Amino acid sequence: MTFQKNINEKVYAIIGALMEVHKTLGPGYPVDYYKNALEIEFTERNMSFEKDKLIDINYKDALVGRLNVDFIIDEAVVLSIRVQESLADVEVQQVLRCLPFVKSNMGILANFGGTKIQYKRVIPSSKHPDQHKIPRSLGYREHGRTRESNPII
């Protein structure tokens, strides 16, 4: 099995879990409720994950802060959960910036704030290998859909 096929299968499984949680709970709850529900869903699906992992952020070899990553699934995919009206480029950029720190090439940004789930796959651009150093919201390829734009999902 190739790496790309393996990562795509993981992403599809994660998106399936996101959809199941949204279908069951619906919109309007605090983000922690969705994180707890996803923890249950990932466990039932036998997916390995780390929840609320703290990542050290250094500047000139000095610790300047810690970044909280909602989920790291199968040591390969970063999942960030939001509950708001819509997703903004700055949130995509936040996911993109944490990828090098967890040695991941795939991120998912999920929003439970609407009547339909919204998610975006975030993949670093090959033009910008040091994603965490990019000053603008460039250097990523965004893949995602909402149920509005693709009613099959």
Provide structural commentary.
With 153 residues, this protein is an alpha+beta fold. The protein has one domain. 31% of the residues lie in helices and 32% in strands. Strands 1-2-3-4-5-6 form a 6-stranded mixed sheet, with helices on both faces. The two termini are 26 Å apart. The model is unreliable at 134-140 and 146-153 (pLDDT under 50).
Question: What order do the helices and strands come in, and which of them pair?
Answer:
Elements: H1 3-25, H2 31-44, E1 49-59, E2 62-73, E3 77-82, H3 89-98, E4 106-111, E5 118-124, E6 140-146
Parallel strand pairs: 3-4
Antiparallel strand pairs: 1-2, 2-3, 4-5, 5-6
Helix pairs in contact: 1-2
Mean pLDDT: 84
- The backbone outline, from C-alpha atoms, is globular
How far is it from the N-terminal to the C-terminal residue, by CA? 26 Å
Largest sheet: 6 strands, mixed
How would you concisely characterize the structure shown here?
The chain has 153 residues and is of the alpha+beta class.
Properties at a glance:
153 residues, alpha+beta, globular, 3 helices, 6 strands, 6-stranded mixed β-sheet
